[in-house]
Amino acid sequence: MTQIDKSKPVMVTGANGYVASWIVKRLLDEGLTVHAAVRNPDDLNKVQHLIDAANNSKGEIKFFKADLLTPGAYTEAMQGCELVYHTASPFSTSVKDPQKELIDPALKGTENVLNSVNEVESVKRVVDTSSCAAIYTDAIDTVNAPGGVLTEDVWNTTSSLEYQPYSYSKTLAEQKAWEMNKKQDRWDLVTINMSLVLGPELNPKFTTSESANIMKMFGDGQMKMGAPKMGMGVVDVRDVAEAHFRAGFTPEAQGRYITSAHNTDFVALGAVLLPKYGDKFPLPKKALPKWLLMVFGPMVNKLFSRKFVRNNVNVPWNADNSKIKRELGMTFRPLKETMEDSFQMLIDQGAIKAK
Ligand code: NAP
User: Fold this and answer.
1) Residue 294's pLDDT is what?
2) Is 199 in the pocket of ligand 1 (CB under 6 A)?
3) How far does residue 275's CA lie from ligand 1's centre (Å)?
4) Backbone phi, psi, residue 184, to 5°
5) What span, in angstroms and rounded, lies between the C-alpha atoms of 271 and 274?
6) Is 69 in the pocket of ligand 1 (CB under 6 A)?
7) Considering the chain, what percentage of its residues have pLDDT values greater than 90?
C-alpha cells in the first residue's frame, strides 16, 4: 500500500510527448505541481501547450532539461517527488539503427531514471509507461496465449532486434524496471501496458506521434483500396492519462495493468469513421486479401514482411482488460468518440484534406 502525498511534486519524464501531455494535464487539473522533464524546455513548439494547460488549471508546472542517455539527468527533477511517471521512450516503427534509436534510449533510459529513483529518498512509487508491446509482438501471439487471450501474466518472447524492435525495446525496458524494483523495498512499481493509443493531441501544433501517423493513413488515401484486417487493441489517450493517474494515486495499485479498451482491427476502425466522414475522405471500406498483402506488402512497406502479414492479417486480437477495471475502477470511451476526435483533429490541423 503506497499513499502518495498530493502536496508533493510529481515528476513526468518525456512530459511533452503525445501520451505524457495528457497525463500532465490530468495532474495539473488535480491541482498538483508537475516536474516536467523534457529534452528542450526552451522549444515552445513542444512545451507551450503544457504552459497553457498549467495556466488553465489549479496546478503548477516546472520544466527540467533531461535526456534519457545522460546519466543522472533526471535526479534534479525528481527531488522532493514521491511519485515518478516514466513515459519517455522513442515510439517509432521506421528506424535505421534499432539498437541506437530504440533499444538504448528505452533500456538505458529506464535504468538511468531508476538509478536516480534509487538515489532520491523521497520517491515511493514509479509508474512506468510500458505497452502491450511488452506482452505480444504479433496478433498470432494472442491466439497462442493461454485461452487465446493476453493477460498481465504474458510476456513478449517473439520480438528481437531484427523483428519488431520497438516491441523488443519495450519488453527489455519493462523487464529492467521489474529487475531494479525487486532489488530494493522503498519504491513500488506499477506498469501501464497500453495497446495502440488514439485520440486527439493536446499540443495543437504537432501531429508527429506514431499514433497520429497511423490515424493519417485512414484519411490520406493510403487505404482507399481497403485495409489489412490486422487484429489489434485500441485505447483513448485521455483514458490512458486517467489510468496513469489512478495507477499513481490508488494505494493498492500493483503490478502490470493491460490498458486497452477495444479488441479490434484496421477495417473495423475505418468502418467507425464511415458514417461521418465516408463521403469526403478515402476511408477503407473493405479488407485487403491476405494473399495480395503477402505478395505486394513487402514492396510497398518494409514493415509488411511476409512474416508480419502471416502473423497479423486476418488474425484476431484479444486482451483481457478486467484487472484495471476491477482494481482501478477504469471505464473506457466508446471507439466512435476516440476515432472521430482523432480524425477531426487531423482535419482541423490541415494534416488531411477532404477530396
Ligand atoms: P511521443 O509523442 O513520441 O513521446 C515520446 C517522448 O519520449 C517524447 O517526449 C520524446 O521527447 C521522449 N524521448 C524520446 N527519446 C528521448 C531521449 N533520448 N531523451 C529524453 N526523452 C526522449 O510518443 P508517445 O506515443 O506519447 O509515447 C509515450 C510512451 O507511451 C512511450 O513509452 C511509448 O512506448 C508508450 N506507448 C505508446 C503507445 C501509442 O500508441 N502511442 C502505445 C503503447 C505505449 P522529444 O519530444 O524531445 O522527442
Assistant:
1) 83
2) no
3) 32
4) -150, 175
5) 5
6) yes
7) 86
**Which cell numbers in the block locate residue 19?**
501520451
What's the pLDDT at 212? Answer: 86
Structural domain boundaries in the chain: 10-136+145-195+235-261+318-332
Give 233-250 as a DSSP string: EEEEHHHHHHHHHHHHH-
Q: Poorest-confidence range of 71-85, 131-145, 185-199, 212-226? A: 212-226
Which residue's CA is the closest to the ligand 1 atom numbered 22? 88
pLDDT digits (tens, 9 = 90+) for 242-252: 999 999 999 99
pLDDT band at 206 (very low <50, low <70, confident <90, very high): low
Separation between Cα atoms, residue 126 and residue 142, nearest integer Å: 28
What is the C-alpha separation between 13 and 24, in angstroms, rounded? Answer: 10
For the domain with range 10-136+145-195+235-261+318-332, which CATH number is right: 2.30.42.10, 3.40.50.720, 3.30.870.10, 1.10.730.10? 3.40.50.720
Measured between alpha carbons, how far is 4 from 7 in angstroms, rounded to an integer? 9
Q: Is the pTM of this model over 0.85?
A: yes
pLDDT at 207 exceeding the cut of 70? no
The rounded distance, in Å, linking the Cα atoms of 349 and 276 is 18
Supply the residue whose CA is at minimum distance from atom 39 of ligand 1: 197
